[in-house]
Every structure is written in structure tokens, then in C-alpha cells.
Specification:
Length: 416
């Protein structure tokens, strides 16, 4: 088998075309599952390697996982996935893929079918396409960031998962992913870019049902959706304060779940509209209760998190509590878990209102308070919720997947 892989430079963080990069990948044939360690060299953005341990057609073996070190010279690269040498900074794990072509039946592995648990049922999946590169217990996939919380929820970062494997696990489940987005008042202008970029990067290949909530249904742009995807429009009133437009989403989502979404979808993700997708935002986000870490707060002491600090509010979080500061522009999970979240936040918002209180960041404060006590089962790293205002991408962010655009708040908000 002979392979040539041309990764985009964006899949090689920190890589410049003028330097030689040695990588120590594990090559895996997605067809038969055979893996082999090898070394190869990257120059000018081109990787070439010649593994020979499987007899599948070249097109079938399309995947590599790698660790490596970087040098500007022509040093010979040690082999093996753990071989990153101490004198060169370790490159984080990266993945790159060529399009997968179907396997021939004769080349499939004869191992037993993979079994996964889905909604409490044991589900056997065909073994085809469920093979992946070996995981090395002593080789962390991302040595530079936290990838699991103290309550053992994964934190999703580039390099921590195999996107092909994740797609292949979730595709046969035939899931529908409800996606709520609000465009009220002048925010309808953000819908086109949101939807067009979502069609390129959001749950590609999955059944997505967008639920657009707006006060101006005629302003919803006609965007071509991929087969199996659809969009429904629901009219909502325009409240006259932007804070209220934002916080009332909890109640409207709760009601929409009760009236239709729980009959129409398996998962629900609730997203801000003043955003664009830039890279894959796929089924790796699926889990029971999912929250996204706020891109402005992940390096701060929890005392500095912008939680509601007045004990009289239902959103109150004491200074010595709290795990991460989550941003309300993204939350989701299984329908009933998100229903419970939105219902509780709505009740807490109403209770505060009856006491003439509005939490410092409205529904985001209540979301954060809820998640201190109902821990999310999966966390999305700031890759999944970035902010264009942050400017230069720091090293730990290998790719920006979804980011808030820079908007003129005074111009778009009702009462700003
Ligand atoms: N929103 C809206 N119209 C408004 C204000 C807010 O549709 O006048 C919705 C929209 O979906 C927006 C979300 O509420 O993305 C949250 O508001 P915003 O994005 O302004 O908050 P930020 O992310 O800037 O804190
Ligand atoms: C801002 C963001 C707000 C809110 C706030 C919390 O960056 O725009 O929506 O999340 O942080 O302090
Ligand atoms: Mn926003």
C-alpha cells in the first residue's frame, strides 16, 4: 500500500512550510484496522510515507494520527508514537484525513462488532469503519490542556478524538439534532452567515432541524439545506430590552421542547445567532448535558468568574464555588436534560424578577448556577465557542470552530 497525504497546514498547528517537521505517526487502515508505526517527513506542507503492512487498496487507508517534534534541520526522526524528543517542543497530536473510499468485503477485519450504549439500549454496530489508531496510555493526546473534569466529563479539544470514528459511531443511530437560534429585531441580519456556515461545518451528514425564533419571519433568508436537514420558523414577540430578548430564550426553548421538539429530535443544541462556523462542529459534542467554556475566562481564578454574586439572587454562586465559567451562546444535550435546565433557569429568572432582581448576565448567570449543581456530562473547549474580538489565536486553540462576530452593539441592540 502506498499513500501520499496532503494535509492542510491548518491541521498542523504551528507548522510553517519552510521548516522540516518529523512526525511519528501511527498509520491505521480504516478498512482492515491494521496499524503500523513509522516515521515520515513533512516539507512544504507535503507528507509522504510508505507503510507496507496491509494489503488494502491504497484509497482505503486514509488516516493517520501523530505525535512529533519540530526541527529546522534534516535530523533523522526516531520512530514510534512516543518518540517526541525532549530538545524539540512536542507538537500536539494532530489528525488529517483523505476522503474515505468504501472497503472491499474481503479486506474487512474479522473482529467482533463494536457495541455502544445509546439511550440506555445496547446497540451493536457493524465493525466496519470502527477501527482507529492505537491509544497509548502513557502518551497523552493533549499534554497542554485539561481534557477531563474532576467529575470525569470529557473536555473536547482538537486532537482528543478521532472525527472519522465519531462520525461512524453516530451515523447509524439516525439522530435528529434540534438546533435553536433566535433572530429578533436587527439580529435577523446575522441569520444568513450563521446558516450558510452551519451548512458547511455544523453536524455535516446528520439530520439537523433548525428552529428559528424571530419576530420577522419574512426576514429569514432562503438558505439551501443539505438533504435530511430542515428549518422551521416560529414567531416570537420582540421584547424591548436586549437583556429580556436574550433571557426569554430559556422560556421559549422550554415551551418549544414541550410542544414539539421532544417529539421531533433526539438532541438539542441552543446557539447564539451572531456567530459563524469556521471548522467542524460535529457529533463529538453530543452528550447528556453539554456546556461550552467561555473564551474570556478559562485562564482566570474562579473568584474572577462573572457569576452572580448577590446571595438574594437564585443565580448566586459563592466565590469559593464553581467549576468553569460557561457561556450561554452554546448549551445542549439530550432533550429532557435540556428541558430540565431551561425550565429551572426560567423559574429562577421569574423568581428573581418577582424580587426585582436581574442577574448580572441574565440567563447566562442562571445557566452557570445550574451547572455548578447539575454537572455537565461533556464540556466543549473554547474551540467550540470563540470570540473574534479575542484577536490572535493562542497556542492551545488549534482551530476555531465557531466564533462570535464583532458587532456594533449600540447599533443592533434595542436599547443599548
Ligand atoms: N438576540 C436577538 N435580538 C436581540 C438581542 C439578542 O435575537 O436584540 C438573541 C440572538 O440570538 C443573540 C442572543 O440573543 O445571539 C444573545 O444576545 P447577544 O448575542 O447580543 O449577546 P452577547 O453574545 O453579545 O453577550
Ligand atoms: C462577554 C460576553 C457576554 C457575557 C460576558 C460574561 O464577553 O459578550 O455575553 O458572556 O462576557 O462576563
Ligand atoms: Mn452573542
Amino acid at each position: 500500500m502506498q499513500l501520499t497525504c496532503l494535509p492542510s497546514t491548518s491541521s498542523l498547528p504551528g507548522f510553517q512550510s519552510s521548516v522540516a517537521v518529523f512526525v511519528f505517526p501511527v498509520f491505521v487502515c480504516v478498512c482492515c484496522g491494521t496499524s503500523t508505526s513509522s516515521s515520515c517527513r513533512i516539507r512544504g506542507g507535503v507528507i509522504t510515507w510508505l507503510p507496507s503492512s496491509c494489503s488494502c487498496p491504497a484509497e482505503a487507508a486514509t488516516k493517520f494520527f501523530g505525535y512529533g517534534s519540530r526541527s529546522s534541520g534534516d535530523q533523522s526522526a526516531p520512530t514510534g508514537p512516543t518518540a517526541a524528543t525532549p530538545h524539540y517542543p512536542a507538537l500536539p497530536c494532530f489528525t488529517s484525513y483523505l476522503p474515505v473510499k468504501p472497503c472491499t468485503p474481503s479486506s474487512r477485519s474479522s473482529s467482533s462488532p463494536a457495541v455502544i450504549r445509546h439511550f440506555g439500549n445496547i446497540l451493536a454496530l457493524s465493525e466496519e469503519r470502527l477501527q482507529h489508531g492505537q491509544s497509548w496510555l502513557l502518551t497523552p493526546l493533549r499534554p497542554d490542556v485539561l481534557t477531563v473534569t474532576p467529575w470525569l466529563a470529557p473536555i473536547v479539544w482538537e486532537g482528543t478524538f478521532d472525527p472519522v470514528l465519531i462520525d461512524n459511531i453516530y451515523k447509524p443511530l439516525n439522530l435528529t439534532i434540534a438546533t435553536t437560534v433566535f433572530a429578533v429585531g436587527k439580529y435577523t441580519r446575522f441569520l444568513r452567515d450563521f446558516l450558510e456556515t452551519a451548512e458547511q461545518h455544523y453536524m455535516v451528514g446528520f439530520k439537523v432541524h433548525y428552529y428559528v425564533f424571530t419576530d420577522q419571519p419574512e426576514q429569514v433568508p432562503a438558505v439551501t439545506l443539505a438533504p435530511g436537514r430542515k428549518l422551521s420558523i416560529t414567531w416570537v414577540p420582540k421584547f424591548n430590552r436586549w437583556q429580556e430578548i436574550s433571557l426569554r430564550r430559556m422560556e421559549i426553548i422550554q415551551t418549544a421542547i414541550e410542544e414539539r421538539i421532544r417529539k421531533e429530535a433526539d438532541y438539542i443544541y441552543c446557539l447564539d445567532v451572531d456567530m459563524k462556523f469556521h471548522n467542524r462542529w460535529g457529533p463529538e459534542v453530543l452528550d447528556t448535558l453539554v456546556a461550552a467554556i467561555h473564551p474570556w475566562f478559562y485562564q482566570l481564578d474562579r473568584k474572577q468568574f462573572s457569576y452572580e454574586r448577590r446571595p438574594a439572587s437564585k443565580a448566586y454562586v459563592p466565590v469559593d464555588q464553581g467549576d468553569f465559567y460557561y457561556m450561554a451562546a452554546v448549551f445542549g444535550g439530550r432533550i429532557e436534560d435540556v428541558h430540565k435546565l431551561t425550565k429551572t433557569c426560567r423559574e429562577h429568572l421569574e423568581e428573581d424578577k418577582n424580587n426585582n432582581l436581574e442577574a448580572v448576565w441574565q440567563e447566562e448567570s442562571h445557566l452557570n448556577q445550574y451547572l455548578v449543581y447539575q454537572k455537565p456530562t461533556k464540556l466543549l473547549s473554547p474551540e467550540y465557542l470563540w470570540d473574534d474580538l479575542k484577536g490572535r489565536k493562542p497556542n492551545e486553540i488549534k482551530l476555531i470552530r465557531f466564533s462570535a462576530i464583532i458587532k456594533n452593539k449600540a447599533e443592533v441592540r434595542e436599547n443599548a
